[in-house]
């Protein structure tokens, strides 16, 4: 594109998970071979004018956790609440969720969407009080509401400590095998006895219930925060898709935009329970669809909600542009300009409008007229300042300020 466009810099428009892989690309293209593409340290500043990230999942999405644990989301929890037993019916023998899990456990890229930054960033994903920060999975509604100090064991939990029971023999009934078939009921009980899993301890849980998937995926993805970005270990490609463990390129004239919708309840954490024992080849954990908050609360059907675009919470979409990369930071050493542009969701008035012209939903936003206008103006040469700078409707700035991350 650069060559065919008269050697003019290009505007890149990645979406959703794609923003992580373009972040990886910028490190790869400048890195020397054989690890990288050998483009040299000035490749990005020479070829890229702007990066307009749409619905960016920079810090991950909690709904990826529900997919890995039980192949569920808010929609499945809703179906369970409306028609109990339908998805788990032995008579129908569908094993729908088992089939979904068997397939999705081969999609290692899902692990790139697991929330990043540990409990430091988990504070920003909080539901209400800061004492409940970072809780992504809770077993039972009470565990999702008590003070975080009541779970001290979670901070010191060692990898694999849950996985010490003898697995059962493979059952002879059912046709769908999942990694849960290698876990004993004792191990499942230990998982639920821990009551709550924060962003830090979640990875230990995933290593227990999906060991093969995690072994493969953790060779390619990392989820922490770098202490020293000059440490040579961060030259490894596994860190390049995590904005908290990699540096942006030296490209002071480049601009980075975070463009995303707001105003839609978005999954943030889950209340789980053990499934009924005894069913052959069942998934032993499920969202507790009976867990509800008060009338004006954010807990509904076992799912806690926050502001977002229905898939990505505001914090994940906006934090890096609002704070992590704002100005010269250790993550943005050349001071690339960043802009937050939010689009308030407005549902279509009728079916004739289709997906709507002002939608802020994660996918439908790509038909949002205001977003399209912003992209076209930048592609035509406008700068972020000429667009009007930030356009914010959410509390992203307040949330970002609460997060104490060394910049």
TrEMBL record:
<dbReference type="GO" id="GO:0008374">
    <property type="term" value="F:O-acyltransferase activity"/>
</dbReference>
<keyword id="KW-0808">Transferase</keyword>
<dbReference type="InterPro" id="IPR029058">
    <property type="entry name" value="AB_hydrolase_fold"/>
</dbReference>
<dbReference type="Pfam" id="PF02450">
    <property type="entry name" value="LCAT"/>
</dbReference>
<dbReference type="InterPro" id="IPR003386">
    <property type="entry name" value="LACT/PDAT_acylTrfase"/>
</dbReference>
<keyword id="KW-0012">Acyltransferase</keyword>
<protein>
    <submittedName>
        <fullName>Phospholipid:diacylglycerol acyltransferase 2</fullName>
    </submittedName>
</protein>
<dbReference type="GO" id="GO:0006629">
    <property type="term" value="P:lipid metabolic process"/>
</dbReference>
């Amino acid at each position: 594109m650069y060559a065919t466009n008269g050697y003019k810099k290009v505007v890149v428009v990645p979406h959703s998970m794609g923003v992580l892989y373009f972040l990886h690309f910028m490190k790869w293209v400048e890195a020397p071979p054989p690890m990288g593409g050998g483009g040299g340290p000035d490749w990005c500043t020479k070829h890229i004018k702007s990066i307009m990230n749409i619905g960016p999942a920079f810090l991950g999405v909690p709904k990826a956790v529900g997919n890995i644990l039980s192949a569920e989301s808010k929609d499945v929890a809703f179906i369970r609440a409306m028609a109990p037993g339908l998805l788990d019916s032995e008579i129908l023998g569908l094993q729908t969720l088992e089939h979904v899990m068997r397939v999705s456990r081969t999609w290692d890229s899902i692990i790139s969407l697991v929330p990043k930054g540990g409990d430091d960033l988990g504070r920003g994903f909080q539901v209400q009080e800061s004492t409940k920060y970072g809780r992504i999975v809770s077993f039972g509604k009470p565990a999702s509401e008590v003070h975080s100090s009541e779970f001290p064991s979670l901070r010191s939990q060692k990898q694999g400590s849950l996985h010490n029971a003898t697995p059962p023999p493979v059952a002879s009934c059912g046709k769908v095998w999942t990694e849960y078939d290698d876990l004993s009921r004792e191990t499942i009980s230990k998982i639920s006895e821990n009551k709550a899993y924060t962003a830090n301890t979640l990875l230990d849980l995933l290593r227990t219930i999906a060991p093969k998937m995690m072994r493969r995926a953790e060779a390619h993805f990392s989820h922490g925060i770098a202490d020293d970005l000059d440490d040579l270990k961060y030259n490894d490609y596994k860190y390049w898709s995590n904005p908290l463990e990699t540096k942006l390129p030296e490209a002071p004239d480049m601009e980075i935009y975070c463009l995303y919708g707001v105003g839609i309840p978005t999954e943030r954490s889950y209340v789980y329970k053990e499934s009924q024992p005894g069913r052959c080849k069942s998934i032993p954990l499920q969202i507790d669809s009976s867990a509800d908050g008060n009338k004006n609360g954010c807990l509904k059907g076992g799912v806690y909600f926050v502001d977002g675009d229905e898939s990505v919470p505001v914090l994940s979409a906006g934090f890096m542009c609002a704070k992590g990369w704002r100005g010269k930071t250790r993550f943005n050493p050349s001071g690339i300009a960043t802009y937050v542009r939010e689009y308030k969701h407005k549902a279509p008035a009728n079916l004739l409008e289709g997906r709507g012209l002002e939608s802020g939903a994660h996918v439908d936003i790509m038909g949002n007229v205001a977003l399209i206008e912003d992209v076209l103006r930048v592609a035509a040469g406008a700068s972020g300042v000429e667009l009007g700078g930030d356009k914010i409707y959410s509390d992203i700035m307040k949330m970002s300020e609460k997060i104490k991350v060394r910049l």
